[in-house]
Amino acid sequence: MTTPGMGNNRPPSSKDEIKVKRRSYLLLAMFCVAGCKENTDSLPAGTENSFATNSTETYKPDAAQSFGDFSFSIPKGWTAVPPDREKTKAMLLLDGTDGQNAKAMIKIDVGMPAAPTARQLAESFAKSVGGNVSSDALDFDGEEAVVATTSSNDLGTPRNMIIVYRDGKAYLLMAGATEGVDIGDAVSHIRSSWKWKQATN
Fold it and tell me: Where are the beta strands (DSSP E) in the chain?
């Protein structure tokens, strides 16, 4: 089978592999926002919630930044970069200038829901990558969020997928990291500082 974007006769280089991983990450986001179908298969309760309010983060929140109809403060050490797709409303990198050399990436995509509930969408994603869905929900400024986790240690597949349904839209927070890089505190920081923009009449 030919790897997308590569010729049949040329062995893949490390740069090719990085590009394929990044492409896979973006395709997963597109799949979950626009292509997931209803999936009611039961899955294990999931792994322990690593984004609870008792996180070990110690840095103070910076001023919140707006990303359309939501805002949050950028975690320490992370940098906000221009989104690479229209559906991506926020994109953060850790120790890197783009998705090819960063140690970790957090993206937030917004689109029309592709499953009746956030939990069904999370289960569909988890099933496709061998992950789990937590039985505990998170609170994002008053809205319930469902968490799916995987054992991924590269940017090809999100390690954490957090899904919120609000006002007819699906919000997907996807966090991926390379091996040995912890992203729990960063995700907890975003969750605790998250604010929804209030609708104006």
Answer: 65-66, 70-72, 78-80, 88-94, 104-111, 132-133, 138-140, 143-149, 160-166, 169-177, 195-196
**Which residue shows structure tokens 């050490």?**
77
CB 121 within 8 A of CB 115: yes
The two tokens of residue 95 are: 């120790």
What does the alpha-carbon distance between residue 77 and residue 148 come to, in Å, rounded to a whole number? 24
pLDDT digits (tens, 9 = 90+) for 58-82: 334 468 899 999 999 999 999 999 9
Between CA 51 and CA 186 the distance in angstroms is 9
Q: CATH assignment of 15-45+86-196?
A: 3.40.1000
By CB neighbour count within 10 A (0-12 exposed, 13-18 middle, 19+ buried), where does 82 fall? exposed
Check residue 24 and give its pLDDT.
44
Domain boundaries, the chain: 15-45+86-196
Query: pLDDT value at position 153?
Result: 94
pTM for the structure as a whole: 0.73
What's the pLDDT score for residue 43?
A: 30
